[in-house]
Amino acid sequence: MKTCPNCGNQIADDAAFCNNCGVSVAVNTQAASDNAQSVDMNAQASNTQQGPQPTPQPQPTPNFGQAPYQQPLVYSDPKDHTKEFDAQDIADNRIIALAAYLFGIIGVLIAFIAGTPFTRFHARNSLRISISAIIILIPSIIPFLGWLVTGICAAILGVIKIVAIVWACMGKAKELPIISDIGFLS
């Protein structure tokens, strides 16, 4: 067994590098052995003066803020049902789903007659918009304040209808905002 010329550690005879400090030991074996003997004597002298040296403990590697148990956060919209439908069904029937919003009751009938799950989803959403339009007319029987409430609700319903049209064009099947939260329209 050889000793390392740098740290005095015992290493195998055929080793090229020290396992402890990483110094090359194959460069000059004669000089290394002479140096190793002097290092060994110095190490023995220092050990007798200081006592036994503690062995170094391995240090854990930092994870830089990520624990091994953390999973990446994936947001899943509970009102988005697009993944429930076949991609081919969405691609083939996007225009029919759009017709349900643009042509009112006639568009809803066309979408129901098409009979695919994607068109039926948008036909139901269009029916919810139509029912909501009828419901918001009720406050209009009250002069001034009722007219104001009906006008504001009609503007909100118009925005919801535009959002639904855009989603149908994009091939998404999402529940309508505000309207889907009303219990009897769900």
What's the topology here?
Blueprint: E1 2-3, E2 10-11, H1 29-50, H2 87-92, H3 94-102, H4 104-114, H5 117-135, H6 145-170
Antiparallel strand pairs: 1-2
Helix pairs in contact: 3-4, 3-5, 3-6, 4-5, 5-6
Across the major sheet, the strand order is 1-2
Give the SSE string: EEHHHHHH
By helix and strand content, what is the structural category? mainly alpha
Count of discrete alpha- or pi-helical segments spanning 4 or more residues = 6
Shape: elongated
Key features of this structure:
about 190 residues; mainly alpha; two-stranded antiparallel ribbon
Short description:
This protein has 186 residues and is mainly α. It is built from 6 helices and 2 strands.
Could you walk me through the main structural features you see in this protein, from its secondary elements to its overall organization?
This protein is mostly helical. The chain is 50% helix and 2% strand. Strands 1-2 form a two-stranded antiparallel sheet.
